Backbone:
């Protein structure tokens, strides 16, 4: 199987894989939409969610009324604050949702402790503070309910975010999450799945063209952004309450997602001024390694180093956008022109996310950035696919040109071989003429001296020494006839019975004449070698039947020869009996037929080898 066929097959397979990626993403969105509309069936019927936003805050013995959500600041590590909330319960199936961010929490209902979170034994030793958790505490009593939440100030922050207390049954609280964060969760999950699939596709595409690494970096950016969005969403904690795991995943993905984005831009856009981006890439790698080491040693938490990234991420995206715009406007860089709008879209989403973060007292999701990143990745998938397709087409043309050049070199070698055969015949004729001149001189001397007996004996010896050569004319074209005659004699010496009929014009273009010599020479040479390898004990008849006729301006060749055993194949190509690789002769025949608008087909069956070739014939002009 040649390189072009492998690329074509892989290209078709990759096309179906990409269709599968988009099919999976569409399916996930459909399932999410169905779940959205049927969310009332999660656990019974959903009850309306009550929002308890007024609480009494007790701190340092002082109590005051506050409105939730709120951020309580100026805290000392280990300082305790108490929130007391009151409401009336009329439900038989009632739960209150409590949430804490990096702070230990104890929850009481009517003076009875029902939930405690944040014990150091529940988390790895390198975490100074617990992660974020959400818990539904059951409200078993009816009537007046008092919920007391006692928070312990974290070791790495001087503030605590206190959310609103939501009260309903499980189905109602779940539906609230579905309506408030279902879109973010769905977008993040689809990006995560699509990114992983895109990484898988890139590992295949990169085997054909280096530009496939674009899909690798884009898929990595999508997967990391989706992972960050999922692990940073409160809804995931409602479904899978693993605060320590999502703490690590959330921050690692957030710290890492800039790297594949930069590598993606560098690979797709040949920046003329690379030094600032190289410096930024070095800084990103250094900060990531530093943050991981500091966290694992328990020196500095991810929650502390994230402040650096909260500044670095928007600055980096704005810098990437500025670099792309500079390349597009001042350097007329085509990829940069195509990617200016997506980068502006990503920068706008990042700016909106930054504004939302600074203006909200309780920050729960990354809605704007996730949406902007999803739209950005959609554009990038389309534009990147076009660039990869163009690169693969250029690479394919280069490979095809290399293949054609190699086949031309093989054809030149074949032409030299057949020219050497003709020269060998010509040298033999010159030698015979030279020997004949000497023999005529001897005959002349015998005749002059009247030595008739010696003359008759010498003539008899000459006749016996002359080989019997049949002057068979297979075709009117002299060059082709010489090649056919030579290999026909080789097949006869191997014991083959010949049946050859070739209908060719006497005058052909020089190139066509050379190509026909290669085609007939390779076919007959392979036949002679196959017959020569047949064992003497075999009962199979040895023969070569060759017919070539003109039909509708095309030369149609059909050849059949006997053989023994089964030839080895690789795909649709036959392995050479001389070397452990694809046979050059038949590949050369197929290439010549393809170049002249035809085709070559070969098959082996029941002790015979069949060759069918057809292509346009170019006769000599004038």
Residues:
């Amino acid at each position: 199987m040649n390189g072009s066929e492998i690329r074509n097959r892989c290209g078709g397979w990759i096309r179906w894989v990409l269709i599968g990626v988009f099919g999976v993403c569409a399916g996930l969105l459909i399932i999410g939409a169905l779940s959205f509309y049927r969310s009332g069936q999660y656990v019974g019927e959903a009850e309306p969610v009550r929002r308890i936003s007024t609480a009494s805050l007790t701190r340092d013995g002082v109590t005051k009324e506050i409105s939730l959500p709120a951020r309580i600041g100026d805290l000392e590590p280990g300082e305790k604050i108490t929130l007391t909330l009151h409401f009336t319960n009329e439900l038989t199936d009632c739960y209150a949702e409590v949430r804490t961010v990096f702070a230990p929490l104890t929850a009481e209902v009517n003076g009875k402790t029902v939930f405690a979170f944040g014990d150091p034994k529940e988390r790895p030793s390198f975490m100074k503070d617990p992660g974020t958790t959400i818990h539904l505490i059951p409200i078993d009593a009816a009537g007046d309910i008092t919920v007391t939440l006692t928070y312990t100030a974290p070791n790495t922050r001087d503030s605590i975010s206190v959310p609103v207390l939501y009260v309903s049954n499980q189905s109602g609280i779940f539906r609230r999450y579905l309506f408030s964060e279902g879109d973010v969760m769905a977008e993040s999950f689809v990006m995560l799945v699509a990114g992983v699939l895109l990484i898988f596709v890139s590992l295949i595409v990169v085997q054909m063209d280096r530009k496939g690494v674009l899909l690798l970096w884009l898929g990595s950016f999508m997967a990391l952004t989706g992972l960050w969005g999922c692990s940073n969403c409160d809804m995931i904690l409602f479904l899978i309450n693993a605060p320590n795991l999502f703490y690590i995943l959330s921050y690692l993905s957030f710290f890492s997602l800039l790297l594949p984005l930069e590598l993606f831009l560098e690979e797709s856009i040949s920046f003329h001024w690379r030094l600032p981006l190289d410096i930024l890439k070095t800084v990103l790698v250094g900060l990531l390694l530093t943050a991981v080491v500091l966290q694992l040693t328990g020196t500095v938490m991810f929650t502390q180093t994230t402040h650096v990234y909260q500044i670095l991420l928007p600055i980096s995206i704005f810098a990437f956008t500025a670099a792309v715009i500079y390349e597009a406007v001042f350097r007329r860089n085509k990829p940069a022109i195509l990617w200016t709008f997506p980068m502006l879209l990503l920068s706008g989403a990042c700016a909106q996310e930054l504004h939302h973060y600074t203006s909200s007292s309780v920050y729960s999701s990354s809605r704007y950035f996730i949406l902007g990143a999803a739209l950005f990745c959609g554009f990038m998938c389309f534009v990147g696919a076009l660039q990869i397709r163009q690169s693969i087409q250029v690479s394919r043309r280069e490979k095809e040109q290399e293949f054609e050049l190699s086949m031309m070199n093989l054809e030149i070698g074949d032409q030299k071989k057949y020219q050497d055969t003709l020269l060998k015949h010509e040298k033999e004729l010159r030698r015979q003429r030279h020997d004949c001149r000497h023999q005529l001189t001897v005959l002349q001397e015998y005749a002059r001296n009247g030595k008739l007996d010696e003359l008759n004996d010498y003539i008899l010896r000459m006749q016996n020494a002359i080989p019997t050569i049949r002057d068979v004319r297979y075709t009117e074209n002299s060059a082709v006839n010489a090649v056919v005659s030579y290999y026909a004699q080789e097949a006869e010496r191997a014991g083959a019975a010949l049946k050859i009929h070739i209908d060719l014009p006497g005058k052909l273009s020089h190139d066509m004449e050379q190509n026909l010599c290669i085609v007939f020479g390779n076919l007959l040479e392979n036949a002679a070698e196959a017959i020569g390898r047949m064992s003497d004990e075999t009962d199979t008849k040895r023969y070569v039947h060759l017919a070539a006729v003109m039909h509708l301006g095309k030369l149609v060749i059909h050849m059949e020869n006997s053989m023994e055993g089964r030839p080895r194949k690789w795909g649709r190509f036959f392995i050479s009996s001389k070397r452990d690789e694809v046979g050059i002769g038949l590949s050369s025949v197929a290439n010549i037929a393809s170049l002249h608008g035809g085709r070559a087909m070969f098959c082996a069956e029941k002790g015979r080898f069949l060759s069918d070739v057809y292509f346009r014939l170019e006769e000599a002009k004038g």
Summary: The chain has 15 helices and 19 strands.
